[in-house]
Every structure is written in structure tokens, then in C-alpha cells.
Amino acid sequence: MIAATFTITEERKQSYNFSDPYFVDGVGLMVKKTAGLQSLKDFNGKKIGVAQSATSKKAIQAEADKLGVKVAFLEFSTYPEIKSALDSGRVDCFSVDGSILFGYLDDSTVILNDRFDPQNYGIASKKGNDALAKTINDTIAELKSSGEIDKLKQKWGLK
Fold first, then answer.
1. Each residue's pLDDT tens digit, 120-151
2. Contact 156, 102 (CB under 8 A)
């Protein structure tokens, strides 16, 4: 099974069983504190680092288009590469799901309040393994009803 920041999509449902959603996250923006950027509307002419083939680029571009803001994207193979590009000034922003950004937060950076394209996270398991899928869903339901999922979100600073 895959228990990570794995977004439930129609395309992925063709290959995996998915649990009920356990978390909703949106694409976020991490910037240097010294950049003076407060929201996407301040990003005109800025470069945004994203993962290759990520949905982040599409979500940010759609919102930038609505705001009339022109942004450029640089694609990287890994999240550490994007963070390094932000630290070195090659990009003005590191963009990926907010919960992933939280793991790269340091004293020099801030995650803006903007969130785009909210998506459900689920646990994926092998197609046809219905017993495992049921166990996963039962466990998620129990964690939700007991309040344990909310406690974990609070513990890790997730919204």
C-alpha cells in the first residue's frame, strides 16, 4: 500500500484501490521571508519552482491567469532541488502541496496562506485486494471518529 501525500485522481483509480479521503490539501507557496511576497498577486515576473509533471504548475498557472499575474516555472526532479533553488535565488518560490512544504520550512522561509486546487489524499492499495482496502477504510473511519486524525494534524501543524 502507499500511505503518503498521494492524491486521489480518476486516473490513479484505474490502477489502485483508494481509501476514503483522510486529508485535504492544496498547493501552497513557500518564499524567502526577505522577498516581501504576501500572496500570488505579488508574483508578477517571478519564477516558481515545481516538481516535474506536478499538478502544482497547472493549479498555480490557472490562478495566476485569473489574477492577471505573469509567472514563469522551473521544473526540478526532486523537492530538495527546488528548496536549494529557492535558497540560492534561482527561483522566487517553491510550490507543492502545503503539507509537503511544511517539511522544508526553515528560519529563512515562510509558507504563504494561499492554497490552490484542494485535493483529497488517500491510501492506495493493490487493485483486487479488497480485504486490505476494507481494513484501511475501517481504520481511517475509526481514526476520524475518535478524533485521532485531528490530533495528528494539530501535532504536525497541518491545516
1. 999 999 999 999 999 999 999 999 999 999 99
2. yes
pLDDT (mean) for 107-111: 96
CB 122 within 8 A of CB 10: no
> Under CATH, which number does the domain 1-22+122-159 receive?
3.40.190.10
Answer whether 3's CB lies under 8 Å from 123's CB.
yes
pTM score, whole prediction: 0.81
Cα distances (Å, whole numbers) of residue 34 to 4, 80, 141: 32, 20, 43
Locate the domains of the chain by residue range: 1-22+122-159, 26-119
Cβ atoms of 5 and 121 closer than 8 Å? yes
pLDDT of the residue at 55 = 76
